[in-house]
């Protein structure tokens, strides 16, 4: 099942154990709300956070925003209960941490067998094993719909420094995007840790766009405006995409595999990209009306 062409420019983590933060998320300009049961929740609050996440999903009120629950790993004392509760609640997605191999995807998929079809599996790509086997992970038959970079955990496991240019992670980022595109999955960049450094945030968002990410996961609402702006298709990109679609749809161009559109070469692959880009642009426009 192909993921829908919908905006995923900004995916904001919210600790499920913080009801005020979750309530605030209902009015924020994020495309995705990730109710976190993992890193943002202390061990003695895990059970309550799970109940709160389920209650928030069932209560709704998040409008167009996708609702995703990040569960604890199945290897933890809370993982199985998290998956069972998430499957029953039926959010838009369940984000599985610490993926290492295709067997992990299969295990999470099996744990979500009772979930409704619209509940998709998202996978955190944050281990060296995941990077080295990313194509096999992305190809695993399952309800997998999105890959999310976890550069903080990846840095820890690599023993790497988080430099401003993110040089230690460029290969991992490129491989993850390639695997996502090869298997028609959404793909999100990792979080930006420097909450107050908005100049650096814009720089890494633009880097993420250059790499081909659909959007970015975030840890603070102050990052939403920049992230949404940078990951929105530019007006000139949308205009050219519409021109490409119109050119290939013209009767006189039926059966042609390549055309000249506004002085640029356009092939059928560009038409496919144009259809998706305009669908996302239209969805963004609709969300702002």
Level-1 CATH class name of the largest domain = Alpha Beta
Fourth-level CATH superfamily of the largest domain:
Phosphoenolpyruvate-binding domains
- The total count of helices amounts to 12
Low-confidence stretches: none
Tell me, what's the shape? globular
When the domains are counted, the total is: 2
In sequence order, what are the helices and strands, one letter per element?
EHEHEHEHEHHEHHEHEHHEEH
Strand content: 15-25%
Q: If strands are numbered along the chain, what order do they take across the biggest sheet?
A: 1-2-3-4-5-6-7-8
Using the CA coordinates, give the radius of gyration.
19 Å
Q: What's the average pLDDT? A: 96
Spatial separation of the terminal alpha carbons = 29 Å
* Structure class: alpha/beta
CATH fold descriptor of the largest domain: TIM Barrel
Helix amount: 40-55%
Report the CATH architecture of the largest domain: Alpha-Beta Barrel
How many distinct beta strands?
10
- Biggest sheet, open or closed, and with what strands and sense? 8 strands, parallel, barrel
Q: Which properties best describe this structure?
A:
alpha/beta; 12 helices; 8-stranded parallel β-barrel; TIM Barrel
Protein architecture, described:
- This protein is an alpha/beta fold and 289 residues long.
- Helices cover 45% and strands 17% of the residues.
- The strands form two sheets. The protein has an eight-stranded parallel beta barrel with strand order 1-2-3-4-5-6-7-8, surrounded by seven helices. A two-stranded antiparallel sheet has the order 9-10.
- The two termini are 29 Å apart.
- The mean pLDDT is 96.
């Amino acid at each position: 099942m192909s993921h829908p062409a919908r905006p995923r420019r900004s995916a904001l983590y919210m600790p499920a154990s913080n009801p005020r933060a979750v309530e605030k998320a209902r009015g924020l300009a994020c495309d995705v709300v990730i109710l976190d049961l993992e890193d943002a929740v202390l061990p003695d609050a895990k059970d309550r956070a799970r109940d709160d996440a389920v209650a928030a999903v069932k209560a709704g009120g998040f409008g167009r925003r996708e609702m995703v629950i990040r569960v604890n790993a199945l290897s933890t004392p809370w993982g199985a209960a998290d998956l069972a509760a998430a499957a029953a609640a039926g959010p838009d997605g369940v984000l599985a941490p610490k993926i290492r191999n295709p067997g992990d995807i299969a295990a999470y998929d099996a744990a979500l067998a009772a979930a409704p079809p619209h509940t998709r599996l998202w996978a955190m790509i944050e281990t060296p094993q995941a990077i080295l086997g990313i194509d096999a992970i992305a190809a695993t038959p399952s309800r997998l719909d999105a890959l999310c970079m976890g550069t903080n955990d990846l840095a820890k496991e690599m023993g790497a420094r988080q430099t401003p240019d993110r040089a230690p992670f460029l290969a991992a980022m490129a491989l993850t995007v390639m695997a996502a595109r090869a298997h028609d999955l959404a793909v999100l960049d990792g979080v930006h840790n420097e909450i107050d450094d908005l100049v650096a945030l814009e720089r890494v968002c633009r880097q993420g766009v250059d790499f081909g990410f659909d959007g970015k996961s975030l840890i603070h609402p102050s990052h939403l405006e920049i992230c949404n702006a940078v990951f929105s298709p530019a007006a000139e990109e949308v205009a050219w995409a519409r021109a490409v679609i119109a050119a290939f749809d013209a009767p006189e161009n039926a059966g042609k595999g390549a055309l000249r559109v506004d002085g640029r070469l356009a092939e059928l692959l560009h038409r496919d990209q144009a259809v998706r880009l305009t669908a996302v642009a239209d969805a963004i426009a609709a969300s702002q009306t």
